[in-house]
Here is the input.
Amino acid sequence: MRIGTLKETYIADAALFDSRTQKVWLAVGAALLVLFPFMASDYWLYLACLVSINVASATGLNILTGYTGLVSLGQAAFMGLGAYTVAILETKVGTPFVLNLLAGGLVAMLGGIVVGIPSLRVKGLYLAIATIAASFIAHFIFANWKFTGGTGGLSVPPAKLFGMALDTSFRLYWLIVPVTILMLLGAANLFRTRVGRAFIAIRDRDISAEVLGIPLLRYKLLSFGLSSFYAGVAGGLWAYFFRVVTPESFPLLMSIFFLAAIIVGGMGSI
Here is the structure.
């Protein structure tokens, strides 16, 4: 077991994987992920896909709450924005699923930026209450807007890759798990950059961060946007996985679940 590592250069300190042991275990983990769908039953494949979707969304919330220190209880609402965007594009337009997922993430990002505007003036419990309000507003829109199908929701056709429908847990596994891994790597790399370090500075002491020249509103909105983008993509994956989206699919309890997940798993830790 590794006890400590000696960093002699800044490049070594900023490295994503800084030891041979890490690289070996990551290679073993990657091999297991590739072999898993060929050995697992449909039930375990279903669970693996569902866990991956939740990991993607929780990672987005961790960017906002764990690394930037802004509490949000609206993650499920942003997932809903992404899921409905994917459902509408898939049923009404028929664009490729990759573009649909990106569009779902971007729509959720815009929603997150709007919700994040009060974050410059309020924080802690008050910010959490503001995001709860956003959740109820989103639920009202989902249930009453004609494009979302009202309370009955929307049925989502399966995603297609080279003409093959991704309509089973085995096939969806090869979409959901790789996307989640890319999102995890993106989040891990984010905090090796100037933007990620600015998020951490705001979390530790926002007044000191502002004194150091970090524009609080810009970076808080950026954090909200990135977190919501992750939630929107996760919501799009959720739509393709369950093939139906309703207003009741993304309740407030789901947002509480994601907050509990990052607390138990370790806030500020990928």
Notes: Residues 43-265 form one domain. The chain has a mean pLDDT of 89.
